[in-house]
């Protein structure tokens, strides 16, 4: 996984809206600049299918997908999008893809970084990497360093918490059980886990974009996207560009984010107009209890002898 972001303090970066294409500017004018999401995360999917539809080898789809990355990153920079996270490679990819394809993807990542550092600098883009980057080939790690969410992420976060507890117990000269009994367990909350995730330095994504039409999140930032808006497009990743990023943001701005609440449009006056629960129960009773079952079990009659006083 890679996070690609403008440098800190991007609010002071001069506006580059004029660098958008005419089509992009048309969509951008429909946006509310004050409601641009702080963090957009994208599941880039469809490279192989893009190539297959054209009777091309899969690696050509990946090459084309790398071009889409650059288009989207540049548009994000031009509208001062603070954080953009791209799902580039997963543990599942490494285990379930042919070795030749995985090897090509590693070479493509290295080549992309080497060939685009200046272009990224020109676009005020700072690269950061999240995930188990230590599992990548050493030459790729070296290039990433030079250019500088998933179940496994949550597992790593728990390991970090346990390691911290063990260290603290050793410092105090007690056992972990003693530490937990002294209230350490009760002090663990959502923020304790969030502080140990790969994205601890980043805001949670406001918007998740999934290309290729797949209706799943593919083990991507499972903790962080609990309340993210999800935008799914049938467009394959190599066909996705900056214009489509802006269209996704436009769709995001038309939504009302509730975070588990009622939303700004709901008022106390709406409560007075709600149908009484008893009436709702009576209306749906026949749907909940099959007619045949109701007829087979008639309501029991009370024996008058048993109720006589």
Poorly predicted runs = 7-11, 302-309
Q: Could you say what the CATH topology of the largest domain is called?
A: Undecaprenyl pyrophosphate synthetase
User: What is the N-to-C order of secondary-structure elements (H for helix, E for strand)?
Assistant: EHEHHEHHEHHHHEEHHHHH
Strand content: 5-15%
Largest sheet: 6 strands, mixed
- Strand numbers in spatial order across the main sheet: 4-1-3-2-5-6
What is the first-to-last residue Cα distance?
A: 77 Å
Percent of residues in helices comes to 40-55%
Round the Cα radius of gyration to an integer and report it: 27 Å
Q: Helix/strand-derived class?
A: alpha/beta
Rounded mean pLDDT score = 77
Number of domains: 2
Q: How many strands in all?
A: 6
Name of the top-level CATH class of the largest domain: Alpha Beta
The geometry reads as globular
- Please, what is the CATH homologous superfamily of the largest domain? Decaprenyl diphosphate synthase-like
Question: So, CATH architecture of the largest domain?
Answer: 3-Layer(aba) Sandwich
Helix count equals 14
Describe this structure in words.
The protein is of the alpha/beta class and 309 residues long. The protein folds into 2 domains: 2-149 and 203-253, 3-Layer(aba) Sandwich (Undecaprenyl pyrophosphate synthetase), CATH 3.40.1180.10; 268-307, no CATH class. Helices cover 49% and strands 8% of the residues. It is built from 14 helices and 6 strands. The chain has helices spanning 22-28, 47-53, 58-78, 91-96, 99-122, 138-147, 151-172, 176-184, 190-194, 242-253, 268-272, 277-288, 291-296, 304-307, and strands spanning 2-5, 39-43, 83-87, 126-129, 207-210, 229-232. A 6-stranded mixed beta sheet has the order 4-1-3-2-5-6, covered by helices on one side. Helix 5 runs parallel beside helix 6 (138-147).
